[in-house]
Amino acid sequence: MTEKSWQKLLINCHTIMEEAVAAFLTELTGSGVEITDGNSPASGSLVIGYMATEDPAIADKLAAIRNYLRVLARQFPEYPEPNIKIESLVNQDWHKQWKESFKPFHLSKSIVIKPSWENYNTAPGEKVIEIDPGMAFGTGLHASTRLAMELLEKHIGEQPTVPERILDVGTGTGILAIGAALFGCRNITAIDNDPEAVSAARENVIANRLTDKIEVSGTDLGDLSGPYDLILANIIHNTLVEMAPTLNKLVAEKGILILAGILKGEQSENIAQIYDNQGMIKQEELSSGEWSALSFKKT
C-alpha cells in the first residue's frame, strides 16, 4: 500500500492574528489545526495545519493562504507580517488526533453541526447537520460559514414560502446546501471544482438523508442554466469578483444572492460596488471579527 504524503503548513504570526489564521486554515484544509508558541517573542504564535500532497487544488489553496496572510498583514501593519513554512510528511496519523477536539456546536440560531463520530441530543427547535469533513473545505468552524448560514436562515425565515431553486457554489462539505434543505428547500444544486469536496459533500448529503433534495456535482458554474431563486457562494473575494457576471445571469429576477468569505472593510465594500454594478441591491451585511457576509437582491 502506498503511503499518503502530506504538506505540513507552519504559519508564524503575532498572537493577535492567531485565531483568524487558525480559522482560515481550518476551513481551507477541512481539518483541525494546532496552535503553539511561535519562533520568537515578537511573532507570538505558530499555527500548524496539513494538506494532502495529492490534493489537486493544493497549488490554489497555498496561493489563497499566502494571499490571505498578505491581506491580514495590511490589517495589522503595526505587527510583524505573518509568514508560512511548508514541510513534507509521510503517513502521519494527525487526522485522528484532531477528531478528539471537534465537538458539536451551534452554527446559527437553529443549526447544530455534529461530527459523524459524536452523539448529540437534539433540543426543541434545533436542526442537526452531521458532517464528516474528510479533506474538503468546510467544517463550519470558520466565521464566513456561520455568517452565510445566519443570512440564509434569516432570509428563509422571513419569506412566506421557501425558494424554489437553490444553488450552492463552492459547496465544500455541503453545509450550506444541507442547511437550506433543513429549512425546507427541496430543489438544491451544490457544485464544487474540487473532487475531494464533491465526494465529501455527497457523503454528507447521504448521511443526512437528503439525496432527494440535494444534487452534488463537479459541474462548472458556466455550464449551469438558471434561473435560481437563491444562490449561495462562500468562497474568497477574488473569485467572487470574477464570478459576478455569471452569478448575476444565473440568479432569478427578485432572487437573492448570499456571498461570504469576504474580509470586512475594503473587500466587502468592493464586493458591494461590483455587484451593485451588476444590478444587485445590497440587502444586508453581517460581520464577525474581520469577516463579512452580504446578501443582495436582483432588481
Describe this structure in words.
By secondary structure, the protein is of the alpha/beta class. It folds into two domains: 5-99, Alpha-Beta Plaits (2-Layer Sandwich); 105-298, Vaccinia Virus protein VP39 (Rossmann fold), CATH 3.40.50.150. It has eight helices and 14 strands. It has helices at 18-29, 58-75, 94-99, 143-158, 175-182, 195-207, 237-250, 266-277; strands at 5-13, 34-37, 45-52, 83-90, 105-106, 111-115, 127-131, 165-169, 187-191, 214-217, 228-234, 251-263, 280-288, 291-298. The strands form three sheets. A seven-stranded mixed beta sheet has the order 10-9-8-11-12-14-13, with helices on both faces. The protein has a four-stranded antiparallel beta sheet with strand order 2-3-1-4, covered by helices on one side. β13 and β14 (291-298) form a beta hairpin. α1 (18-29) packs antiparallel against α2 and α4 (143-158) runs parallel beside α5. The N and C termini lie far apart (56 Å).
